[in-house]
Amino acid sequence: MTDDDxxxxxxxxxxxxxxxxxxxxxxxxxxRWQATRARVPLEGFGxxxxxxxxxxxxxxxxxxxxxxxxxxxxxxxxxxxxSLMSLREWGxxxxxxxxxxxxxxxxxxxxxxxxxxFWGGEVDACINAFTLANGAWLGADVSGIRNxxxxxxxxxxxxxxxxxxxxxxxxxxxTLNAVIGILDxxxxxxxxxxxHAARRGAEEYLxxxxxxxxxxxxxxxxxxxxxxxxxxxxxxxxxxxDHFRAAARFDGTAPDPRxxxxxxxxxxxxxxxxxxxxxxxxEGREWFPVDVPAGEPSRWLTFFALRTLRWWDDDRG
Length: 317
Hints:
Blueprint lengths: L2 H9 L3 H10 L5 H8 L6 H7 L29 H10 L11 H8 L16 H14 L4 H9 L20 H18 L3 H16 L28 H15 L8 H9 L30 H18 L1
Helix pairs in contact: 2-3, 2-13, 5-7, 7-9, 9-10, 9-11, 11-13
C-alpha cells in the first residue's frame, strides 16, 4: 500500500480509532474529529462496552477480575478496571457512562485484594495507575493514590508491582503503567507537584535504559519489541514511545535523544505493505475483539507507530 492507502485504511475503522487518525495523522479540522469522537459512545466498540455496564456501575461484577473468575485461568479483560480503561482511552466522555458511575463504584466495588475500597486503590502499582487515571476521568477522589505513588517510588526511580514481595528494583512494565496513569491525571486535574516530580524521575529511569536495555548489563529485553494491541498492562517500546510523545507535548519539551534506538526499532519493524502487524494473540476472555489475530496487519499498532514516528521526525526536524 502507498502511504495514502495506509491512511485511508486507518480511517476506515471504528470511531474509537478513526477520530484519533483524523486528528493526529490527517490534520482534520477540530469539528470533524470531534464529531467522530462523539460517535464513539453511540456505535461500535464504545457502544458495545457501555451496553454491558451493570446497574451497580461494574462490569462483569468485579473490580479487576470478573465475579466468576477462577484462579488459574488466563487473566480475563472483562472486569471494571479494564473496561473503564478502554472507554477512557477511546475518548468516551464520562457522562456517557451510567449516572454517577464514580459514586456507584465507591459504594459497590471492592478490590479482590483485601476487599479494599475501589477509589482508594490497592497494593499493585499497575492497578493503582489505571485507577488514578480512571478516577481523574470520572471525577472521583483519588488523592490517596496520588500520595501512594509518591510514597512507594523506589530508589532507582520507578515502581514494581512486586514490591510487596520484597522487590527493591523497578520494573519496566510497572513503571510505564505508572507514568501513563500519572500523566493522564496531570492532564485532567493538574496533579500535584510531588507527583509530577515522581513521574519525571520515573521517566528518567526508562530513558537511562533507552526503553530497551538492562542498565546493569546492556542486554536488550526481547519482549520490548513484541507489539500487540490492546496494550493493557504490557510493556513495549512502541507503547513507551507513545507515552514520551504525550509527555513531551504536555511538558513542552523536545524528544529526548535517548529514544533514538527505540524509534529505530519501531521504524524497522514496519512490514513491506506499510503496516505493523499484531505480534501476539490476545489471551483471556474479553467482551469482543478490538483488533486482529496474531500475524495480521493491525490498524491500532499502525496508527500508534505512524503517530510516534511523525512526532519524532517533525519535532526533531
